[in-house]
Amino acid sequence: MSSGMSVTSGFAVFGTPLGHGGIAWRAGTVVRSLLPEDDAGAVRSRLAAAVPDGTEGTEGAEGAVPDSLRHVIDGVVSLLRGDAVDLSEVPLDLASVPAFQRSVYEFVRTIPVGHTVTYGDVATHIGEPGAARAVGRALGANPFAPIVPCHRVLAAGGAIGGFSGPGGVSTKQRLLAIERAHGDQPALFDL
């Protein structure tokens, strides 16, 4: 197979300003993305588990990252460098994601770079007022970070809230700082 042909399923580990990130895909759709961490091997293992039939994508070799997904890697790297990159159109495989979580992820993808909303705002927007904790649980299980930017969702009153990604709350704070977001910004509805 030449590097110009699309691989049906695979994964790629790539460098970012914050460490090793990664995506896994199947048929040109992202099935998993991971926030960066120091251990490339750990990222590789989690991605390989997401697409056990996949090949690791490397540039210029058999198993190359499909042309249709190169922009995703470039976008994530740029976002983590501090560029205002919109990843809301990245194709995600949401088929196995429960309906509530899917509605949370779809809404969170609309939050612009550098802006934040609260868990309660998300719950209200998806028609589930009072479900702020369930929103938090859904974001804690987010298989598409940072494409689904769960770090942009805060607790009531602009408190940082929790974060299940590598490094915990300190990573969430760092991501928000990179995006120059502040807890005192208006909710999305006030933009």
Structure write-up:
The chain is an alpha/beta fold and 191 residues long. It is built from 6 helices and 6 strands. 37% of the residues are buried. The protein is 33% helix and 16% strand. The strands form 2 sheets. A 4-stranded mixed beta sheet has the order 3-2-1-4.
Question: Summarize this, please?
Answer:
The chain is of the alpha/beta class and 191 residues long.
Mean pLDDT: 89
Q: Roughly what fraction of the amino acids lie in strands?
A: 15-25%
How would you sum up the global shape? Answer: globular
Strand order of the largest sheet: 3-2-1-4
Percent range for helical residues? 25-40%
Order of helices and strands: EEEHEHHEHHEH
The strand count comes to: 6
Label the structural class.
Answer: alpha/beta
